[in-house]
Structure formats: C-alpha cells, structure tokens
Amino acid sequence: MRFSVEPVGFEGGKQKQVLPGIRCELEEGVPMLDRIEYFLTLAEEKNITHAAKRLYVSQQCLSAYLKELEEEYGVQLFYRKPQFMLTPAGETFYRAAQQMQLLNKDVKSQLQNRAYDSQGQLLVGIHSSRSATIMPSVMKKFWTQFPNIKVDVVDGNTKMFERLLLDGDIDMFIGVNPAKNLKLEQIPLLDEGVYITISDSMVRKYFYYDYPGCLERFEQGVSLEEFLKVPFIFTNEDSNIYTVLNAYLIQRGLALNIRMTTNNGALRTEMTAMGYGASISAEIRLLDIAEKNNLLPPDAKLFTFPIVDIPLSKICLVYRKGIYKTAYFEKFASEVVAYFKENF
Q: With CB atoms 3.0 to 4.6 Å apart as the test, which of 10, 153, 163, 242 could cross-link to 235 if both were Cys?
C-alpha cells in the first residue's frame, strides 16, 4: 500500500488543508517500526491532530499508520472513545518503543564512533561541589589521549542523573547512593564518610574549657551533640548529605543552629574559614580543604573531624548496561576510577 499527501495546493477547485512540507508514504515492505517516533508522539500527545502537527504529517497519514500498526500486531493500541488513550497493549508497546528508540541511538553512536573514535562528545553528570575536586585531575589525563573530545558536565543530584541516563540524555554520572536498577551498571568508587569542618578560632570560642585537649579527642570522631551551640553553614534539603544527617539528627532528637544553607561546598568552606560557622563536608572535599589551609592564617586554620555513627555513603560511577563504549568513554571512566584509588 502507498498513501501519499501532496503539499498545499488545489485539486478539483478546492484547496487541500495540509501543512507545507507535509509528506507521508506508507509502503509495503517498510516495517512500521521504522517510524516508531510516530507511535511515541501519538502516545505523548494523546491527540492525532496535535501529533500530526508535531510530526509535520497529515492526520490521514497518521491515522493510516496507526491502523496498519495495529493490524500488523493484531492488537488495539489506542482507545478512540471516550478519549484517545493507550490500551493496556498500547502501554506495553509504548515501553518497548522507548527502549527501541534508545537502542537506535546506541547503534548510531556505535557506527559513528567507530569511524570517529578520536572525535565526539561525552555528557557527564556530577554535582558541582564534587566536579570542582574531581574533574581537573581527570581531564588533565583524559585530554592527553583524547584532546578533541568535548566533555559537557551536567550539574544536578543523583535522582536527576538517573532519569537523564535512562532517557539517554547523559552518558554516565558520578552519584551518591544510586538506586539499584537492572538497566544500569554501577562501579563503586568510595565508601564516603561525613566530616565536620570548623576553624581554629571557633573551636577556641566554643570549647575554650577544653582547648587544645579537645582536638585530639575530636580527631577520633565527634558527635554533633557536642556542637549544638555552634552556628552551622549547612546543606540544602535536596542534597544527599542533608538526607543522611537529617535522619541522624531526628533519631537522636537533636537540632543544629543553622545560620545559612547552600549546596555549594566551596562556599561552605569559605564561610567556615571566615569564622561564620562550622560546616559539613563530604570526605571528597577534604583534599580541597587541605589545600585551602595552606593559604590561611593560623587562627583561621580549618580542622576536619569525622562524625561518628553516620552510615557511609556509596559513591559510584553509573552508566547504562549493554551500550557500546567508545575508546574515549572507557578512558574517561578508567581515569575516574584511578582518581579515587590514588586519592582515597
């Protein structure tokens, strides 16, 4: 069968109501799956008219496509009345169609990257506070071998990265406590502890009765119960550290004196060095804090003490299972793993 719609014009003295540039050819021998985006758009729009406009095809073309698709599989994919919506069979087909679309992207990537393995792009999800610590070292070694690869760093949190990865919008991410998912591969990087960061001047002020003896004790681990009077530069509620610490505080019936909140780890460290409050730092931030200490006067020196009784967080490198890995994908992943082995 061949179904064609010409562009806007005249036939029999009447103007045909078809958008400019519209064309539709459904030919025998051409699998319906070659136009899987037609089905996906119909499922998303739930309206043939809207879907046709979005696809730049006619309504007649889209209706004919859907009829043939249902005949090919022998099931009804959409209810027409009382409203246009997926049937249970259509829901199943929709999930499969999404996977087919992702697979198609991977196949195209494989073919392109085999020819241009020294050119390309990586999209990497990583929280800004961690990227400032990790990326400079990783990129220095990565670009030595692949100087022409563009790397786009996407800021966000682990839940956001999981969605983007499953939708094929990023290639990999470094996340905290990622959820188990059969479609995703996780490479463990670090069982990360949580630390309190506080300046020497604030320790003197709030622990004057036990200074400097308290420092040796704190180095073995602290309880936040001892720091309830100390003002804090804290994380926002959407951060993974907040989730862990909030559970810790609720379990013990504690409330901190929170003076400011920010997810920017560098800003928390800077405010702590200025004596505005203690802060909470993930273990990976300790390297940056140690470097900053070299630039600070003695009374602003920063101490980092591990907080006891808080579960360690799992830092992982995550990517989709079954994808084709380019040479530069594998190089980047290996450099991330090497960075954590060398520094932690």
A: 242
